[in-house]
Amino acid sequence: MAFVLGKKRIHKFEVQPVGITLCLREFTPDERNEFEKKIRAVVNPPRGKRDDNAYDNVLREAAELLIVEWEGIEGEDGKPLPLTDETKTEFFADPETAKFWRPAIKGYLFPSVTAEE
């Protein structure tokens, strides 16, 4: 689902059955160009320069940049985690949380590919 907030489109992704909601803003044109350069470099690396973590790193960077709101994400104490730079970095770096955020970011970044999967 996407909706307009001010002049920016916001894409809302609900992760079921866990009840997490992630809201992503759109890239600016410059951000989109930079992201596409990074993805091309990952997909077509120079000979001998393949990095097995590069794709995940680019997705994580995009997720941290684009997320504007989240719901249903709690700390170990059961209280909602505020969306701060620190909590975003921790959340997106944790391999256990990837199953929640990766489908949302991939759905936004690669909608036609994700629809075919």
Quick summary:
This protein has 117 residues and is an alpha+beta fold.
CATH architecture: 2-Layer Sandwich
Q: What's the number of helices? A: 5
Strand order of the largest sheet: 1-2-3-4
Whole-number count of domains: 1
The proportion of residues in beta strands is: 15-25%
Summed over residues and divided by their number, the pLDDT gives a mean of 84
> What is the H/E string?
EEEHHEHHH
Low-confidence region ranges: 1-5
The CATH topology label is: rbstp2171
- Structure classification: alpha+beta
Proportion of helical residues: 40-55%
Question: What secondary-structure arrangement, pairings included, does this model have?
Answer:
Blueprint: E1 2-5, E2 8-15, E3 20-25, H1 29-43, H2 54-66, E4 67-71, H3 85-93, H4 98-109, H5 111-116
Antiparallel strand pairs: 1-2, 2-3, 3-4
What does this structure look like?
The structure is a single chain. By secondary structure, the protein is an alpha+beta fold. The protein has one domain (2-112): rbstp2171 (2-Layer Sandwich), CATH 3.30.2220. The protein contains 5 helices and 4 strands; from the N terminus they run βββααβααα. The protein has helices at 29-43, 54-66, 85-93, 98-109, 111-116; strands spanning 2-5, 8-15, 20-25, 67-71. The protein has a 4-stranded antiparallel sheet. Strand 2 (8-15) and strand 3 (20-25) form a beta hairpin. It is globular and about 45 Å long.
